Amino acid sequence: MQTRHFVDLKDKRLLNRGNSILNRLFSNSIYSIRQLASSDSEAKAMYRFLQNDNVSESDIIKNMSSNCQNCVGNKSVLCIQDTSEVNLYNHRNRIKKDDYIGLNGTVGSLGFFIHPSFVLDSETLIPYGFSDVKVWNRTHEEPKKDHSHQKKLLPIEEKESYKWIESSLKTKKVLEKAKEIIIIQDREGDIYEQFCLIPDQKTHLLIRAKTNRILQGKQKLFEHLSNQTLQGTYTIELEGDKRRNIKKRTATIEVRFSKVTITGNQYTNKKLPEKITLYAIEAKEVGENIENPIHWRLLTTKKVEDLATALLCIEWYTCRWIIEEVFRILKKEGFNIEASELSKGKAIRKLTLMMLETIIKLFIMQIAYDTQEEINPRSCFSQQEIECLEIQIQQLEGKTQKLKNPYNSSDLKRYIWAIARLGGWKGYLSERKPGITTFWIGLQKFTAIMQGWILFRDVSRR
Predict the structure, then answer these.
(1) CA 332 to chain CA mean position, Å
(2) Is 462 a residue whose pLDDT tops 60?
(3) Residue 239: phi, psi to the nearest 5?
């Protein structure tokens, strides 16, 4: 696992400033530039960096992709894609209406969209970063409703849905040295053109079906799947949600799969194949009186000819929730980018990208507890921070063996243990593992401790 920082900006001064902001975002976990900076002069320097035309969005995304590429190597990876809106409507009277924000299509919606491609190890789920992030906005004019077929006649490259294909093509290029790439998308990615253009010998699509397509033989996809022979079942424990009045339960899932052939429609580019062969998987929860039962129908280009492969694809698709966690941390329950005090859309978009790169470290901290693999501590902490954490570990360890830090100094888990303890975790390995919120609180406390430690050390050396 490589240290995550920028390595390629237009000059060294900008590079140093960019990495300084990344470090502050990780340690302070806050959207406010005023609170990130230690002085007025540093705050002004951060503002200038985010507004500087010599630092473009593409420059930041290139560095993010490079970090991801350096981590992946010859590994099998999952690439999870989804879209989220950054809504700045609450700041509509303050924020400048430039070319970097627009109306997002609904009432009370002003801002821009992000479409990241989040890359994970297919076995350990260790996050490697973002192979690509597409950022765009609509215009400031209310869109006119088009009830004709003109929109359908547009080439796929001119439609907003092309984001799925565009990001997949860029991901293939960035991860060209990977052993295998599984691109995972929700129902919006169910696009015929994508199944034609993206797959190759080592790149596969795994997409939840949106359309009940008509297959060869005039039978519909969903009915065809339901009529297949039951291949097996499995059970899964589902967490409850008191806010939505959902009770914890054990779900029994039936699995069916089939080889299918789908065709394009009258609007499909005639240069593309008229039909393609895929594999369809159905995961259906069974039982009585179940509210909102699980029922997934997945389309994949990976060959599915046995239950083990079908279960593996289902397991991979369940990882899609991770990108929802990324958006949650970026917005209300984390950095809260939508509350940013910045007045220019250009600056907010750059800060959003830098926050996404920072979130990778938080996920590395969380995933580290679920893997036996040792991760280099320098992937999250500087040498100076590691020295301070070693002192903290001595203070945080209890008298009993159960409350001792059990990890080696070569393993990131040793220092995550300390951050989690600062965040309120009791330290017993038999308890529930610390989550990102705990790390969030622990990092903020550690930042204050680190500042005091540096001050004490500097004064004592005079």
Answers:
(1) 15
(2) no
(3) -70, 150
C-alpha span between 168 and 173 (Å, rounded) = 9
Question: What is the SS3 assignment for 385?
Answer: helix
Euclidean distance between the first and the last CA atom of the chain, given in angstroms as a whole number: 37
pTM equals 0.90
Taking the C-alpha atoms of residue 68 and residue 65, their distance in angstroms, rounded to an integer, is 5
The answer to whether the CB of 412 falls within 8 A of the CB of 375 is yes
User: pLDDT, tens digit, for every residue of 203-228?
Assistant: 999 999 999 999 977 889 999 999 99
Looking at residue 337, its amino acid is I
Q: How confident is the model at residue 241 (pLDDT cuts 50, 70, 90)?
A: low
Per-residue model confidence as pLDDT tens digits over 296-328: 999 999 999 999 999 999 999 999 999 999 999
Q: Which of 335, 387, 368 is nearest to 434 (CA)?
A: 368
Read off the DSSP letter of residue 169: H
Distance (Å, rounded) from C-alpha 268 to C-alpha 332? Answer: 40
Q: What is the mean pLDDT of residues 379-393?
A: 90
Beta bridge partners of 284: 254, 295
Which residues, other chains included, contact 321 with Cβ-Cβ below 8 Å and sequence gap of 6+?
none
Provide CB contacts within 8 A for 336, sequence distance 6+. Answer: 31
Handedness of CA 49, 55, 59, 61 (dihedral sign): positive
Buried b / exposed e across 184-215, counting CB within 10 Å, b at 16+? bbbebbbbbbbbbebbeeebbbbbbbeeebeb
